[in-house]
Write a structure and sequence with these properties.
The chain is α+β, with helices and mostly antiparallel strands. The chain is built from 19 helices and 40 strands. Strands 2, 3, 4, 5, 10, 14, 15 and 16 form an eight-stranded antiparallel beta sheet that branches. The protein has a six-stranded mixed beta sheet with strand order 1-6-7-8-9-17. Strands 29-31-32-35-39-38 form a six-stranded mixed beta sheet, with no helix packed on it. Helix 6 runs antiparallel to helix 7, helix 10 packs antiparallel against helix 12 and helix 16 runs antiparallel to helix 17. The radius of gyration is 30 Å and the shape is globular.
């Protein structure tokens, strides 16, 4: 079975092993341990085939080792995304399954600190091999802890801790003669610390020689989308001198480029390795034989009821010099006090998690998803190397190890909730690698080059992400270099998409299904290349999602141009947005099916609507294209809330939102290869539907969708967030390599959109339909439709918004009303700024504040050309409820309506000063925005 994404392979990996026993130095010398005992437990044949071949059970239920905590950094059971902090290009995972079928060479699941090593460079990504520790008594058998009598692991965002027991006393007594404790944490970029403690719990003195083994991974599966090696290749391919191990591999590319490469690995310890012993040093070995390296030190005395500590620093690099530098940095960090170095990294994690925004929930399961999402986004960061000008994000290290056209910016959306500087780098990164024709490549390497041998892009989500990031961008000021770079980089990218209109109808086209990002979607009716790659099928489809993305991009560009004072360019982009919205409404609406659909060229200058029923029909709602309340209602009630299509039915174990409608003939059949975007749940359609529901007034349904999806995610795997979910079972979905492979663990945009959902960002914009008299939520802008008139805007200078309740009190709707009330609160304590600005841009008003104690005061209103604005206070436990009464007045200054209210007695001196400062700031800003006159 061919794989979805064939990777380029270039890796030169070196790791630097260092051991230390405080006050008791020793030298390592090799001793070949006896064959490892076969476990009586576990799954025959290494366990992995039966674990993957048809099961979507939770990884916790498949592990042969007792595990707890999260995220679950588990070799094979969780695909890709290893422990890999600080933008590392390599990583580690715990191994909890028997590996291999030959009892003499099998790696037992109970081996102490049994872990897998991974390369995660853009040109070189796969599992390298496995390692574990063992101890011999006096340099002879029996081997302790390989395997241990029992082993337990607890996971944390920063790594994991494990405990193992050797030499159990008589049956029924689980106390140990030797208790081993280990932990793993990332110290710095490409630097890992493995800390070991060995407790002699017996009264007898022990003499134990510590050892480490490196063995090739011999199971039948790779967590990489492109394996670096054939299964018969050796991890330890050749041996040069005392400390250099070299392996050579090549990749086969089909539509991907092919690179042959080699990597090296240096093993060393302090005070130094005495010698190695290797077995299986050929380049290609017969199947079932694994290359192995053993390192063993001189015996160490551990008196009764005493403990000794060991520290192992691992430095990875794509070249030997990089690895040596990484190991040296690591050893400098731990040389003075290894335990303190580890503790500092753990404290840093705890502080980071405690400082991020509070999610809008008190549900413990959802809080865990939030922390998992924050951890995933940090672990998927890729630090600058090669030609990278800044940090980037990959969807899932090892498996999807490139900067993808829409993954990277969507991850920046979530990253902005955690660290704006890192999010900004992600936004800027892709524009540093624009192709000559202006395209953002589908897959980009750290050399800022496309990894495909042909030109291809992905959905232009950058405009949407930029617009959602405006609070952070504005905080940088009008002279923001970030905003200027985004603006200038977007111009050629939009030119690239303008040229994608073969039939000249003003609607853009993807080149093929691969470019849609919906890889094997039935929208493109093509045979599959491998399992899920739809390439070079129909090229004559006007895509409704693409047109909607570009519409939102034009609006973002118009707003940026306005910030820069470039009114002419702003007008051009606004006109393009209006024109494109009109074409979507006039040409892509199918009244017979009550939805927006792709257009397919039928020949003779005619078009027909696409036949597949997918969530793409909601994109014009998601991105605010349609201002027609009747069409929005038809889409929502006919399709999105239909349990036979996208809403699902809990009673029948159907979950929202499948990537193809449940009742559509193209909904996938796992017997066939097509499955990836043919019915599985992806978080992008979920977010699209959730936003569409809330925007057009279906707030309760949006909240229900939020709850159902988050519960599904937690129940599927409480130890991680995944790429896809099975819409018919709610379990973890299948991955890119075909049915049978779990989808990628701690997946990038699933994590980013989980953060957005838990912060209610989908509520930012609300359209008010005729007849609505109240709205509530974390709303930044409320617009009357179909009039397209903004009646309320909330500004805070940051991403977070207050939760508002805005209603008309005289029995009229919000469109025709004249007397309103407004309350604002921050129930989760995220608003850290000193001000909130409420704007009523299209009608002047008078405002009073009613306090919980019965007092009332007039609020000074900042006058505008057509409307008004004021600075409210939040309702808090200290202030009690503050309700603002807003009375619309006509332009002559008299009140509308028939009720009489107290006259405005004037604003406070403090408010008058604020008004004066704002006017001064506005005048200054206008002057700065005006172009300088040249002589």
């Amino acid at each position: 079975m061919f794989r979805l994404i064939r990777r380029l392979a270039l890796f030169f990996s070196v790791f630097f092993l260092q051991f230390e026993i405080p006050d008791l130095p020793f030298w390592f010398c090799p001793v070949l341990p006896p064959p490892l005992a076969a476990s009586s437990q576990g799954i025959s044949g290494g366990g992995l085939p039966s674990a993957w071949a048809g099961s979507q059970d939770r990884p916790q239920d498949l592990s042969q080792v007792e595990i707890e905590g999260y995220p679950l950094y588990l070799e094979d059971l969780e695909v890709a995304s290893p422990l890999s902090d600080f933008g590392s290009h390599a990583g580690l995972k715990a191994s909890v399954l028997d590996d291999g079928s030959d009892p003499s060479t099998r790696i037992d699941h109970n081996n102490f600190m049994n872990m897998a090593h991974y390369a995660a460079w853009t040109d070189f990504a796969d599992q390298l091999d496995q390692s574990f520790f063992f101890f011999t008594q006096g340099g002879t058998a029996p081997v302790l802890l390989a395997p241990a009598d029992w082993r337990k692991i607890k996971f944390y965002p920063w790594g994991w801790e494990e405990t193992a027991c050797a030499g159990s006393r008589p049956a029924g007594n689980l106390s140990c003669d030797v208790l081993a404790e280990g932990s793993v944490v990332t110290l710095d970029t490409d630097v890992f610390l493995v800390q070991l403690r060995l407790h002699n719990l017996s009264a007898q003195n022990l003499s134990l020689a510590p050892g480490l083994t490196l063995q090739r991974d011999s199971d039948q599966f790779s967590e990489a989308s492109i394996p670096l090696r054939d299964q018969s290749a050796a991890a330890v391919a050749s041996f040069d001198g005392q400390d250099l191990v070299i392996s050579r591999h090549s990749t086969r590319g089909s539509v991907f480029r092919v690179i042959r490469s080699s990597f090296g690995r240096q093993l060393a310890s302090d005070p130094g390795i005495y010698r190695f012993q290797l077995r299986g040093i050929n380049f290609l070995l017969p199947a079932g034989i694994r290359g192995t390296a053993w390192v063993e030190g001189n015996p160490v005395a551990i008196p009764g009821v005493e403990m000794r500590e060991f520290y192992w620093v691992v430095g990875f690099g794509l070249a030997e010099a990089e690895a040596r530098d990484a190991a040296d940095r690591g050893w400098d960090m731990v040389a003075e006090n290894p335990r303190r170095a580890q503790t500092e990294k753990i404290q840093e994690w705890e502080e980071r998690l405690s400082e991020i925004r509070n999610p809008h929930t008190e549900n413990g399961r959802f809080l865990q998803i939030y922390r998992l999402a924050a951890t995933a986004l940090r672990m998927n960061l890729y630090s600058p190397r090669a030609n990278m000008p800044a940090w980037g994000s990959v969807p899932g290290k090892v498996h999807f190890n490139h900067f993808f056209g829409w993954d990277t910016p969507l991850q920046a959306l979530g990253q902005g909730e955690l660290n704006w500087e890192e999010a900004r780098d992600n936004l800027l990164l892709q524009f540093a690698g624009l192709g000559q024709d202006g395209q953002v490549p589908t897959m980009m390497t750290d050399k800022m080059e496309s990894n495909l041998s042909f030109g291809s892009s992905q959905p232009p989500v950058q405009g949407f992400v930029i617009s959602e990031s405006f609070p952070d961008l504005r905080a940088e000021g009008k002279e923001s270099r970030t905003l200027r770079k985004l603006y200038e980089g977007s111009k050629p990218y939009l030119d690239f998409w303008r040229k994608r209109d073969q039939d000249g109808d003003g609607l853009p086209e993807y080149k093929d299904a691969l470019e849609t990002g919906w890889d094997d979607t039935p929208r493109y009716e093509c045979p599959l290349l491998g399992t899920n790659l739809c390439y070079q099928a129909r090229r004559d489809i006007d895509a409704v999602d693409l047109a909607s993305w570009i519409y939102r991009y034009y609006l973002a560009m118009a707003e940026i141009a306005g910030i820069f004072g470039e009114e002419k360019e702003a007008g051009v982009y606004q006109a393009e947005a209006r024109d494109l919205a009109g074409r979507i409404e006039n040409l892509m609406w199918d009244p017979s099916r009550s939805g927006y659909f792709d257009l397919q060229d039928e020949g003779n200058g005619t078009h027909g609507f696409g036949r597949a029923l997918t969530p793409a029909l909601a994109w014009p709602l998601f991105l605010g294209v349609t201002r027609d309340p009747d069409r929005a209602r038809e889409v929502i009630e006919t399709h999105l809330l239909n349990p036979e299509e996208f809403w699902g039915d809990p009673a029948r174990s159907r979950f929202p939102v499948p990537s193809v409608a449940f009742n559509d003939s193209t909904y996938y059949d796992l017997v066939q290869d097509g499955y990836y975007w043919q019915g599985q749940i992806w978080m992008i359609p979920v977010y699209v539907v959730m936003t569409s529901l809330f925007r057009y007034g279906y707030a309760e349904e949006a909240e229900l969708l939020k709850t159902r999806v988050l519960e599904m995610m937690f129940n599927a795997d409480p130890g991680g967030i995944h790429e896809t979910y099975n819409a018919r079972t709610g379990k973890v979905g299948w991955g890119s390599s075909g049915p049978g492979e779990p989808s990628v663990f701690q997946f990038g945009w699933s994590s980013a959109l989980s953060l957005e959902i838990l912060l209610d960002r989908y509520q930012r914009e609300r359209f008010i339909r005729p007849g609505e008299s109240e709205i509530s939520g974390y709303i930044g802008e409320a617009t009357l439709i179909p009039e397209n008139q903004v009646i309320l805007s909330i500004y805070t200078g940051q991403r977070d918004l207050p939760r508002i309740d805005f209603r008309e009190e005289t029995g009229r709707d919000l469109a025709s009303g004249w007397y309103f009330t407004l309350t604002l609160e921050d129930p989760y304590g995220n608003l850290t700024g000193n001000w909130i600005l409420v704007r009523l841009p299209n009608f002047p008003a008078r405002v009073w504040a009613d306090h919980y104690d019965g007092t009332s005061e007039a609020i000074g209103v900042i006058p505008g050309e057509k409307g008004a604005a004021f600075f409210p206070r939040l309702t808090t436990p200290d202030t009690g409820v503050i309700r603002y009464r807003i009375q619309k007045i006509n332009y002559a200054g008299s009140a509308t309506g028939c009720r009489q209210f107290p006259a405005d007695r004037g604003a406070s001196l403090e408010m008058l000063l604020v008004v004066l400062i704002l006017f001064m700031f506005r005048i200054t800003a206008r002057k700065k925005a005006q172009p300088r006159k040249t002589r």
